């Protein structure tokens, strides 16, 4: 039996969605973020030394990192006939989106979140305008343009494709779901990017996604 070590409001929600789509039995072990630091509890370190989520256990295996988990589930429990054949363009695209979500897109979204928090964090009054100035300048000159570049790229791709690999849902969609739904929920993706918004709305309305929400609990990005 697969156990999903599920942290509230985290990337582990997409693992629940994938398992629901696969109709694969699993159980959930819940962990709650610290209300002040928003960090995972130390008890997660008993599962994996970094104490991060998602982590799954499957028999004797402990598997961390969303991309690795999603790829493992796709190859172990998915329809192998629907997986891209190695060496094909679709196989390249599958691996590209699997790595792109966390390797290229998420770092800039995370930087944006951190610098926005800097502007509202408690600090000596004389430091506040300096910190805000640095955060604003970094956001406008570096982070903002980078995010725009990535979202324009995704918007164009989804204008030509129903799912990230074409006409059918794939493991790439589970991996890409978290940064996109977080961007929509936080107002980073607005009405000027209708393809991304349509895509997120489309998969969030799926029965499997709704079942994952019911089992996973409160999730701010849906």
Automatic annotation (TrEMBL):
<dbReference type="GO" id="GO:0005737">
    <property type="term" value="C:cytoplasm"/>
</dbReference>
<dbReference type="Pfam" id="PF00043">
    <property type="entry name" value="GST_C"/>
</dbReference>
<protein>
    <recommendedName>
        <fullName>glutathione transferase</fullName>
        <ecNumber>2.5.1.18</ecNumber>
    </recommendedName>
</protein>
<dbReference type="InterPro" id="IPR036282">
    <property type="entry name" value="Glutathione-S-Trfase_C_sf"/>
</dbReference>
<dbReference type="InterPro" id="IPR036249">
    <property type="entry name" value="Thioredoxin-like_sf"/>
</dbReference>
<feature type="domain" description="GST C-terminal">
    <location>
        <begin position="87"/>
        <end position="221"/>
    </location>
</feature>
<dbReference type="InterPro" id="IPR010987">
    <property type="entry name" value="Glutathione-S-Trfase_C-like"/>
</dbReference>
<keyword id="KW-0808">Transferase</keyword>
<dbReference type="InterPro" id="IPR004045">
    <property type="entry name" value="Glutathione_S-Trfase_N"/>
</dbReference>
<dbReference type="GO" id="GO:0004601">
    <property type="term" value="F:peroxidase activity"/>
</dbReference>
<feature type="domain" description="GST N-terminal">
    <location>
        <begin position="1"/>
        <end position="81"/>
    </location>
</feature>
<dbReference type="InterPro" id="IPR040079">
    <property type="entry name" value="Glutathione_S-Trfase"/>
</dbReference>
<comment type="similarity">
    <text>Belongs to the GST superfamily.</text>
</comment>
<dbReference type="InterPro" id="IPR004046">
    <property type="entry name" value="GST_C"/>
</dbReference>
<dbReference type="Pfam" id="PF02798">
    <property type="entry name" value="GST_N"/>
</dbReference>
<dbReference type="GO" id="GO:0004364">
    <property type="term" value="F:glutathione transferase activity"/>
</dbReference>
